Amino acid sequence: MKQLILSLMALASFNAVAQNPTVPSVTENVVEDFKSASTNQENKQYPMVNSQRMVRAQITAPQATFVGLDIAGKIYAMTKDENGVWTGTSAPQDEGFHYYQLNIDGASVPDPGSKYYYGASRWGSGIDVPAADEDFYTVKNVPQGSVNEVYYWSSVTESMRHGYIYLPAEYYANPDKKFPVLYLQHGMGENETGWSAQGKTGIIMDNLIAEGKSVPFIIFMDNGLNARRPGEQPMGFGGPRPGGPRPEGAPRGQRPGGPQGAPQGQRPRMSGADFARMARRMGGAFEEVLIKDIIPMVENNYRVIADSEHRAMAGLSMGGMQTHGITLNNPTTFAYVGIFSGGTIGADELTDVPEFKKTNKVLFMSAGGKETGMAEGENSVNKAAEDMKAIGINAHSYISPETAHEWQTWRRSLYQFAQLLFK
Amino acid sequence: MKQLILSLMALASFNAVAQNPTVPSVTENVVEDFKSASTNQENKQYPMVNSQRMVRAQITAPQATFVGLDIAGKIYAMTKDENGVWTGTSAPQDEGFHYYQLNIDGASVPDPGSKYYYGASRWGSGIDVPAADEDFYTVKNVPQGSVNEVYYWSSVTESMRHGYIYLPAEYYANPDKKFPVLYLQHGMGENETGWSAQGKTGIIMDNLIAEGKSVPFIIFMDNGLNARRPGEQPMGFGGPRPGGPRPEGAPRGQRPGGPQGAPQGQRPRMSGADFARMARRMGGAFEEVLIKDIIPMVENNYRVIADSEHRAMAGLSMGGMQTHGITLNNPTTFAYVGIFSGGTIGADELTDVPEFKKTNKVLFMSAGGKETGMAEGENSVNKAAEDMKAIGINAHSYISPETAHEWQTWRRSLYQFAQLLFK
């Protein structure tokens, strides 16, 4: 669980844990077969990736004294040629999508060559490193659904909110049919754009449905971090403390049960449920918005089968922890539960096992193979799924090969989870 | 028309005409009532705008020797404080949306404080300067349509293409109703995201429909610059010459009828139709994609009234010139024509006036008040509309007060044009 909170903090911001160290650009044993990244802006040559999955960035900055490529926790010092063009190459990266940025004389800025994505609490550069299995998230000439940008009124926040809804191709083609719905949430430092842009949700679903591997369903993607009641302050790291204001007179750091309060060594062990509570607090009023505003809005405005057996919730990292807490808190609302790199639901958390078995159709937990705390051993998703299966729950686990707390793990998790839904 | 081509070039890139000059940051007579811009990233304080419509940018760049705010053709030199934080203020800007960027020691980069928009041939910073009339493009609690991201197969380019479709709220609420369609195009250096992001198309339409000022209709927004047949090279400035390859043996610069070929002073005067042809060539195979792929796809996949009286085309700048050419070329396809800051259709271009009067329901031409060539005098949209009305055509013109060749002109043009459609 310590690993999970460090992962959360790393996701939240480039410099949440510590300033990334500067290292020399890689120059030895580099295979010179670089190609422009698929995530580049139209007609931009750089950044590039080679067959070793090294990333090479380039930018013109004639008067700069330092330019660095800031990716995966390191800043690679780039070198300048006689025309003021800086170039630098990183060590090999994992397959899939990574946030990165450039550092120009101490300023952290987006790379003008890449498209921009919201993560690490900013709109900034991202790069997709080709993956052996990228076919499943490649646009193909199959029946196309659409990812739709919608605004809706929230009675909880008393404001217009913004989300995205995926409608499968059949939603348009078959106007009499009603569909199940998955509510799908992003991670810390991300927003409602993450699942469709970095996550490639619409493309993955169109392909899965065309191959007959998934039934067609609707997906709603909201912002799980910015739901605030009128007058409420932002939650999350640096926001108001979980558990409400510090009691009058109480010294800083002595919070009842919070993870950050007690002195080192005396902290009570946090359970999965504690993390789930924390994630729900970070989201502010998100649980209430989801239950009171989003689900009714989706079910009123779209052709939806409006019962728990046709309703799923899933999320990645913090979104998985929110899923953990919200689905346990609302056991008759969601029959399908997916937690991607967000820890596990333990059998000891179920207060009424027979009831859970009656309401839950699938419990899916996944992690990246490099997230060792969640991928291996006593706290792994595999162990949790085994324990759940032992008491008769339809639990599934999945480990994404050779990936970390990043989007390739979550694209693959969605691909796996979607095939289990509403069948 | 010279002004139009200069406007096109300025839109295409920050440095299409010349490197922007560096000027001192504005420090005198500045009213200190700056507020964070509505286009900022969540939780980012800068850039800010004050009541004089000055823009103030700020960035941390401790080791930099120069940082500038590059907006509206000038680079304002910012100044550094003891913490390495650079701040600078521009002269007053026009109301509405502007592309801008930062310059850090010679590198042109996006401002990490703003959201990013596609224009000037790059994803980069944009800022919305509050406008007296911004109510019409403000999100309100009215019935909400949606802007949908779609992929479709193009038989012309033999590839999957990417566009956006606006569906009004009633499309979802009234599943038996069919709707008219407007095909709406962006300008030079922009793409299919422009009309919904900078243009606020979905918001403008939801508000207009809710007020009963517009009938509900569908809008399709495509990329008018990247349509290329298999093997074809990119078109546009720097691409292949208009009019096909240079004849074998012919010296450079002696093109038949092209605007750039003949020596200064001997160039044939370009007509509106010449510009329209040029714009269509810049778009490559766009006309063919629109007629053969997009319109049939929209009419097959959505509930559409599929006849010319329920089909409109409009565009801004280059997109207006494409509209000019494509609608004259396909007179029985579109009954409604809108040209925003894209010149005029002259009565002398109509080869068959009675036929045009029979097929065209509305001809709308607009410009920004600061686009003097199009807003005033012999070549103005007002004059062109008068001439057209004189021969019995239902022509309309509109001048956007105090705006230039920018998005505020086009938001207002859409607001005006939409109210004339399909009635």
Strand and helix map with partners:
The structure is a homodimer of 423-residue chains.
Chain A: H1 2-12, E1 22-24, E2 35-36, E3 48-49, E4 54-60, E5 67-71, E6 74-77, E7 79-80, E8 85-92, E9 96-104, E10 107-109, E11 116-119, E12 122-129, E13 146-154, E14 159-167, H2 169-173, E15 181-185, H3 194-197, H4 201-210, E16 218-221, H5 272-282, H6 286-301, E17 311-316, H7 318-329, E18 336-340, H8 353-359, E19 362-368, H9 372-375, H10 381-390, E20 395-400, H11 407-418
Parallel strand pairs in A: 1-6, 15-16, 15-17, 17-18, 18-19, 19-20
Antiparallel strand pairs in A: 2-3, 3-4, 4-8, 5-6, 5-9, 7-8, 9-10, 9-12, 11-12, 13-14, 14-16
Helix pairs in contact in A: 4-11, 5-7
3D structure, described in words:
The structure is a homodimer of 423-residue chains. Helices cover 24% and strands 26% of the residues of chain A. Chain A has 423 residues and is an alpha/beta fold. The first copy, chain A, is globular and about 70 Å long. In chain A, helix 4 (201-210) runs parallel beside helix 11 (407-418) and helix 5 crosses helix 7 (318-329). The first copy, chain A, is built from 11 helices and 20 strands. Chain A has helices spanning 2-12, 169-173, 194-197, 201-210, 272-282, 286-301, 318-329, 353-359, 372-375, 381-390, 407-418, and strands at residues 22-24, 35-36, 48-49, 54-60, 67-71, 74-77, 79-80, 85-92, 96-104, 107-109, 116-119, 122-129, 146-154, 159-167, 181-185, 218-221, 311-316, 336-340, 362-368, 395-400. In chain A, strand 7 and strand 8 form a beta hairpin. Residues 236-266 of chain A have low confidence and may be disordered. In chain A, the strands form 3 sheets. An 8-stranded mixed β-sheet of chain A has the order 13-14-16-15-17-18-19-20, sandwiched between helices. At the A-B interface, strand 10, strand 12, strand 13 and strand 14 of A face strand 10, strand 12, strand 13 and strand 14 of B. Strand 13 (146-154) of chain A pairs antiparallel with strand 13 of chain B, so a sheet runs across the interface.
